[in-house]
Amino acid sequence: MTELFQDPALVLLLLFVIPLALRVPIAICLGLSASIVAWMYDMGIDMLPYNFFAGVAKVPLLAIPFFILAGFIMERAGIAARIVTLVETIVGDMTGGLAIATVAVATFWGAVSGSGPATVAALGLILIPAMVKSGYDKPFAAANVSVTSGLAIVIPPSIAFIVYGGIADASVPALFAAGIIPGLLVAGCLMICVYIISKKRGYRGLPRSVPIWKAFKDAFWGVMTPVVILGGIYGGIFTPTEAAAVAIFYGLFVGVFIYRTFNSFEILLEVLVESVKATAVIMFVVTCAGLFAWVASTVGLVEKGAEFLLALSDNPWVLLALINVILLLAGMLLDAISIYYVLLPFLLPLIRHFGWDVVWFGVMMTVNLAIGQITPPVAVNLYVGAQISGLTMEEITPAVIPLLIAAVLALVLIIYVPWFSTFLPTLWGL
User: Fold this and answer.
1) If DSSP codes are grouped into helix, strand and coil, which group holds residue 334?
2) CB under 8 Å to 203, separation ≥6 — which residues?
3) Where along the chain do its domains lie?
4) Are 359 and 175 in contact (CB under 8 A)?
5) How far is 364 from 240, CA to CA, in rounded Å?
6) Distance from CA of residue 113 to its chain's centroid?
7) Mean pLDDT score, 268-283
8) 158 Cβ contact list (under 8 Å, min separation 6)
């Protein structure tokens, strides 16, 4: 027993895993285990506050609260509802039109919100009733919205890419560019899947109720949102952090002066409160994870973990497949940001060892974790989708399986064809 406590790396691992298995919140597991080990092994308890705040004192992370606030503002501004109306008008009564449109809207809205659960909440309230009204099965409608909203962490600008870039010291603009084609690839696979299901079940939409031009005119300012954000980043006009701030003011401008949905101070205050709550949750995890990463590195847990993985196989393709299995399993239990902080320190030595492209690896990891948002038992997107639709997890899960298979097939392509991720960053010199 005494020999057990002689290895601080093992003690740290046990103090983290045991509470996690008992359903203690991930942030508490990270912060408490790191603090106890730092105290037990005299690592300098006075360093804990410094490392706690150092976890969030990174320039790329400044964009997170801005993008969260921008997402809330744009949702309340009515941009999502108008985009949905535009898409419904375009697809009309096509076979599977509204289901395919749901994938397209979720892909588009992911570039605005950057959050899977937020995208489910914003779109689910509009799209699920619309699909049911058009004759779609409710579990299928809820599953479609929940699964496709996972794209929100892949399509730029993505909070997940910002976190990854901060940990792996990778270029955030390069990660944003790299995520475009893989995000569209996943969306394409999901579109094919929902079309096959719709054709088999005879799902069709309703005839157009308004002219396409009128719907486009009404949704124009919403459609311009990703153009303003991404165009500014890739045009070199502003950084991702500055782009997030611009997105806030753009959303406020549209909500106050164009759509006039922000017509009282109470609405603005409500949006600010909700964004602070969402930001606080993420940043608390980030700070505790940063503390855990410092202690894990100091006691040698990172090196031992990397050595263990290398001992399993020195074949890069075998190890890559193993890493993705680990990520898929981790995605069933933890949120994406926590996984980055817990697992990425162990994976970075492997990336360097095999000479893997850090940007491609970031895209692969992010797509994998996007799938994790729809795999029980955590499956945060499914919980939100089930809550909105009034269904149970047991009712919604069977409808998720075909979409999950489609997403995994897209992931396999992204893993074994790095070109999908590296083409645009190379083309744009990022």
Assistant:
1) coil
2) 95, 96, 98, 99, 134, 135, 136, 137, 140, 197
3) 59-427
4) yes
5) 21
6) 10
7) 81
8) 110, 114, 152, 175, 176, 179, 366
| CB distance 222 to 80 below 8 Å | yes
Alpha helices in 169-264 (DSSP H): 172-201, 212-234, 240-253
204 - beta bridge partners?
A: 95
End-to-end CA distance of the chain, in Å? 52
C-alpha span between 174 and 180 (Å, rounded) = 10
What pTM did the predictor assign? 0.77
The position carrying tokens 């795999």 is 375
Tens-place pLDDT, residues 322-332: 888 888 877 77
Amino acid making up residue 109: W
Q: Do 70 and 253 touch, CB atoms closer than 8 A?
A: no
Cα distance between residue 117 and residue 140, in whole Å: 18
Angle at 170 between CA 190 and CA 68, to 5 degrees: 60
| Residue reference for tokens 């409710």 | 138
